[in-house]
Design a protein that fits this description.
Strand content of chain B: 35-45%
Largest sheet of chain A: 7 strands, mixed
Helix content of chain B: 10-25%
Largest sheet of chain B: 8 strands, antiparallel
Strand content of chain A: 15-25%
CATH topology of chain A: Purple Acid Phosphatase, chain A, domain 2
Strand order of the largest sheet of chain B: 3-8-9-10-11-12-13-7
CATH architecture of chain A: 4-Layer Sandwich
Low-confidence stretches of chain A: 206-246, 371-401
CATH class of chain A: Alpha Beta
Largest interface: A-B, 73 and 69 residues
Shape of chain B: globular
CATH superfamily of chain A: Metallo-dependent phosphatases
Distance between the termini of chain A: 54 Å
Oligomer: heterodimer
Number of helices of chain B: 7
Strand order of the largest sheet of chain A: 4-3-2-15-16-6-7
Order of helices and strands of chain A: HHEEHEHEHHHEEEHEHHEEEHEEEEE
Number of strands of chain A: 16
Mean pLDDT of chain A: 82
Radius of gyration of chain B: 21 Å
Amino acid sequence: MSIGGSDLDKAIAQLRACRPIPENQVRELCYKARELLIEEGNVVGVDAPVTICGDIHGQFHDLMELFRVGGDVPDTNYLFMGDFVDRGFYSLESFLLLLCLKVRYPDRITLIRGNHESRQITTVYGFYDECVRKYGSANVWRYCCDVFDFLALGALVTGAATSLSPTEGPLAENAEAMPDIDADIEIETLNSAGEVMFRYARNSDSQTSESSQTLGSSPARPDPTPTRVGAAGTGASGSSNGTSRNEGGAVLCVHGGLSPLIDTIDKIRLLDRKQEVPHEGAMCDLLWSDPDDIDGWGLSPRGAGFLFGGDIVKRFNHNNDISLIARAHQLVMEGFKEMFDNTIVTVWSAPNYCYRCGNVAAILELGEDGSNAGFQRRSNGDRGGGGGGWVLGSNDGTSTRNSTDNLRLPEGPGRRYRVFEAAPQDSRGMPAKKPVADYFL
Amino acid sequence: MTTLNGQPLNTHVPGHDADTSITRDGFKVTVRKLPILKAGPVEDMTQKLGITPPEMIFGDNLARIEHPQNGWNIEFNAFDALDRVDKTGASMLKVSYSKEWQKNRQKQFEEIKEVVKPFDWSYSTDYKGTTSGTPSFEPTEKPIPIQLLMRRDPILFYDEVMLYEDELADNGIAMLSCKIRVMAQRMLLLSRFFMRLDGVLFRIRDTRVYVEFETGEVIREYTAREEKYDTVRKAVPGSPEDVLAIMRDPNQLFAYVPIVEKSLDRAVIK
C-alpha cells in the first residue's frame, strides 16, 4: 500500500486520535519523509509568519493543546525545534503525527533536530521502549531513527515584522498596565484563552531605551578600525544586504545553541548532517549547548559541552545580520525566557513536563513584515535619538573585537508568546496520577 | 536585563493540593506538594546556595514529622538538601564521553579552558533531614524494626513528594524524593537520593525515619550505596530492555549496588 493523498489524511486522523498507525504505514511514511527532508538544507529557510515551538517530549495531549492554542496545520505555519520524543508516554504518536503533517503540508511545517532525535538517547529515555511495547519489535524505532538523521539542524526565519499589531482580545484578569495602543508593540503575552496578559512597547522602559541609546548614538569607539562585520554572502543577509528596509534581521532557530566552530550560518550549511548525532563537533554543539551568564565560551562542569555568554550571541547575531536566536532544550518554568538584551530566547512547549513539574509552556509567533498595516517600524527621532541614529540593514558599522557594547544589532522581531497549561487530565484517557499506597521499606 | 516575561502567571495545576497531613499520638505528619519554582524564586535560590539548582526544583515542597507539643520536628526540603551538595567542584564527576570530548576540543580551542562554576552537578547529597527542637538525635545500635514494618497493617496515610530532579543534561538522572506511610502504631519516611550517571556511576542514598507512636521513639537510618555503572550492567541479568528498566529502578538495583556507608541514630520524643 502507499501512503499518499487520502491514506495520509486517514493516518493523520488516526494519529490525531492518539492511535498508532500500522507498521507498514510507518515504514512508508518514513520513506516519504526522508525523500522530502533530504532536499532540505541544513538550515531551512522559513518565511514569516511562523509559530516557533520548543520541546514536545511525547506529551501528545499537550501537543493537541498547542494546536488548539496556536491554530491547526496548515492554517498556521509551524516550526518545531526538536525533542519530539522521549520522556512522555506518547512519543510515537506525537512524532508520527508531526511527520505526517510534514509530508502532507511540507511548506507549512518545519521540523529540526533535537538532541533526543538520536539512537543513543532514545534507547535510554523511553522512545525505544515505547516502540517495542506498541509494535512488539524495534522496527518502527529504526524507521524513525533513519528519519532523525535527515532532519535539518536549524532554520532561518526571514521577513518577520519588527512590531506586532496588538491583539484585539480581552485583557486577562491579572493583566499589567498596558502601553498606549498606538505604541510600537514589541512583545505581547497571551494566555491560552487568547487574553492579553502583558504587552510591551519598544523602548518603553529605561533599560531598553538605555540600550537603544547606546546602540543609536555614536559614542567614542575604543578601536575605530573598521572590521568586516557584514558577513556578506551569508544567507542571513542575502539579497537584502545593503538595502534600507523596515524589517529587522533574520531569526535563527536551533535546538541547543551556538558552537565555537560556527561563526557564520554558512558554516552550518557545510556540515554533513546525515548521521547519528556525534559526541563532539559543531553538529553536537548546535543540538546540545546552552547560554549562560558568562563572558565568552565556557566548559560545562559536566566535562563535555559548551556554554556561551551574551557577548558570543551578540557578535554572532551582528555578524550574521540576525536579530534573535530562538532555541529550546532547557526547561523554563514560564514557557519562555529571553536573555542577553533579548538577543536569544528559550522556548519550551511541554507543559507540566514529565506530568509532574507544573510548569506552563509557550509558543512564539512572529508576524509577517508588512502585513500589519500602520504598525511598521520607522526610525523616528521622537525619543531623543533612541533608534534614530541607526539604519536597519546597514552593515557598514564598526565594531571592536573584544567588546560587543557598540555592535549595531538589527532590531528584534515583534514577538507574541502564547502561554498554555497542560491539557486537562481527562483528555488523556487515563486517570489523574495519584500515588498508590505501598508497603515500601 | 534578562527577561521581559508577562508575569505573573498562575501555574497552579489542578490535582496539586498543597498540604496533606495526619496526626497520630501527638505526631503530625505533613506533605506539601506544589509546582516547580518559577524564574524569580530560582534566582533567589541560586544566590543563596551559590550553585545552579537542578532543572526541576520543587522548592516549596516538603515532608515533615513534628511533635507540636514538644516543639520537635524533622523536615525534608530541597534547599537544605542542596545546601549539602559539594559546591567546590572537588568531588566533581565527568560524563562518560568527557575524555574523548576534551581531547578533540583541546586540539581546536585551547583558549576555552575555563570550567564554568564548578560544583557537584550530580547533586549528590548526604541529607538526613533538617531537625529542630529537642531532644536531638544520638547515635544508636538499635536498628529500625523491619519485621514490624513488613506487617500488612492498614495504611492510614500515604504520600510521595518530589524535592528535586535533574536529567544531568541527558546523561542519566539525579532525583531526591520522599515517601511516607503512616499506620496506626508506627510510621516510616523514606527520603531517597538516586543518581545514575550513564556509563559512569550509580548512587542510592536513603534516609529512613521510623516513629513508634506509643513510645515516641524515633530511629533514623542513613544508608549510602554506590557502584560503577559497568559493574552493575554486567551483573544485571536479562535482555537489554530488562537491564535498562532495572537501571531506572532503585528498588531493583539494591542487589547490585553495595552499601558504602551507614549510620543509625535515635531520639525519644515524650
